[in-house]
């Protein structure tokens, strides 16, 4: 009987120590309980084998062994690395996707296929949000093909983006001169800066007729001569600002082409103007 009790005690002690040292115990944070249990079981085992002698000492030894074998550190999980994204960007709605679920951009213009409304855009061409080449002056000819950028809105142009012959590309009022003279006032020079910007963009591809117009005060012959001199003064100013002279032709129209009624001050002011017409 004593031998059986001894064997049972030894088995309990061994089982406890194995349990404390095993992988399951490493995940258990009840460190103190493990130590106490080790002491009780070891004491019982020693007491059983010695007939009660040395039970206290066995308990102390069992507790010490349990403290050694039962680890206090919790297992630290290895960090999980996030998988690298397959696509550089999340494909927008409507995009055509490859086998990895990434969007195509066949013409490399920054707008993906399926959203791109203008496929096969030439390399380097600036496009809008739907992938079509920019048309800054809205004349129907893309900027990269437009030979006459900055054409005024509504101007009829050819396939190169340049105004057709006879098209009026600009009409300026407020181009004032000294009384009965062809000398531009400082205010008039400021108004003409709009023409300078436009004509510098087109002077290598089109020729422009600079038409001087007057109101009906004075004789027709006098107004014709005066308007010619004033048109020439405008051309001289444009050339001084960098517009190529060979692209400009001064024409005095006199009072022959009014755009308003000459019977009112406002009408006469509107008729005193400078038109820029494509040759």
Topology:
Layout: H1 2-21, H2 23-26, H3 31-50, H4 55-69, E1 168-173, H5 186-202, E2 208-213, H6 220-240, E3 248-254, H7 265-271, E4 273-278
Parallel strand pairs: 2-3
Antiparallel strand pairs: 1-4, 2-4
Helix pairs in contact: 1-3, 1-4, 3-4
CATH fourth-tier homologous superfamily of the largest domain = OmpA-like domain
Q: Estimate nothing, just give the exact number of structural domains.
A: 3
Q: Radius of gyration from the CA trace? A: 49 Å
Strand content: 5-15%
Q: Point out poorly predicted stretches.
A: 4-21, 23-28, 38-46, 54-67
- The outline comes out as elongated
CATH topology of the largest domain: 60s Ribosomal Protein L30, Chain: A
What is the typical, i.e. mean, pLDDT? 79
Query: H/E order of the elements?
Result: HHHHEHEHEHE
| Helical content class | 25-40%
Main CATH class of the largest domain: Alpha Beta
Calculate the terminal CA-CA distance, rounded to whole Å. Answer: 130 Å
Features:
279 residues, alpha+beta, 60s Ribosomal Protein L30, Chain: A, four-stranded mixed beta sheet, 7 helices, 37% helix, elongated
Descriptive overview:
- 37% of the residues lie in helices and 9% in strands.
- It is an alpha+beta fold and 279 residues long.
- The chain folds into three domains: 2-69, no CATH class; 91-134, no CATH class; 146-278, OmpA-like domain (60s Ribosomal Protein L30, Chain: A, 2-Layer Sandwich), CATH 3.30.1330.60.
- Strands 1-4-2-3 form a four-stranded mixed beta sheet.
- Helix 6 (220-240) links the parallel strand 2 and strand 3 (248-254).
- Helix 1 (2-21) packs antiparallel against helix 3, helix 1 runs parallel beside helix 4 and helix 3 packs antiparallel against helix 4.
- The chain is elongated and about 100 Å long.
- Mean pLDDT is 79; it is low at 4-21, 23-28, 38-46 and 54-67.
């Amino acid at each position: 009987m004593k031998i059986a009790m001894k064997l049972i005690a030894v088995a309990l002690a061994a089982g406890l120590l194995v349990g404390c040292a095993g992988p399951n115990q490493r995940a258990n944070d009840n460190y103190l309980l493990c130590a106490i249990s080790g002491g009780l079981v070891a004491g019982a085992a020693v007491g059983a084998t010695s007939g009660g002698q040395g039970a206290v000492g066995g308990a102390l030894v069992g507790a010490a062994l349990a403290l050694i074998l039962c680890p206090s550190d919790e297992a630290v999980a290895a960090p999980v690395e996030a998988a690298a994204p397959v696509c550089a960007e999340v494909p927008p709605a409507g995009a055509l996707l490859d086998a990895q679920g990434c969007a195509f951009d066949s013409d490399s213009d920054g707008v993906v296929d399926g959203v791109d409304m203008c496929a096969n855009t030439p390399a380097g061409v600036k496009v809008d949000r739907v992938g079509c080449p920019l048309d800054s002056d809205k004349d129907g000819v893309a900027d990269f093909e437009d030979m006459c950028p900055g054409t005024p809105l509504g101007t009829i142009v050819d396939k190169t983006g340049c105004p057709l012959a006879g098209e009026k590309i600009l009409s300026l009022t407020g181009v004032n001169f000294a009384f009965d003279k062809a000398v531009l006032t400082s205010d008039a020079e400021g108004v003409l800066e709009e023409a300078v910007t436009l004509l510098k963009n087109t002077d290598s591809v089109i020729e422009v007729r600079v038409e001087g117009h007057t109101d009906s005060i004075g004789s027709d012959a006098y107004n014709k001569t005066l308007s010619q001199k004033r048109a020439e003064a405008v051309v001289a100013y444009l050339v001084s600002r960098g517009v190529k002279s060979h692209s400009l032709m001064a024409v005095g129209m006199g009072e022959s082409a009014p755009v308003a009624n000459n019977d009112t001050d406002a009408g006469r002011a509107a008729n005193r103007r400078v038109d820029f017409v494509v040759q």
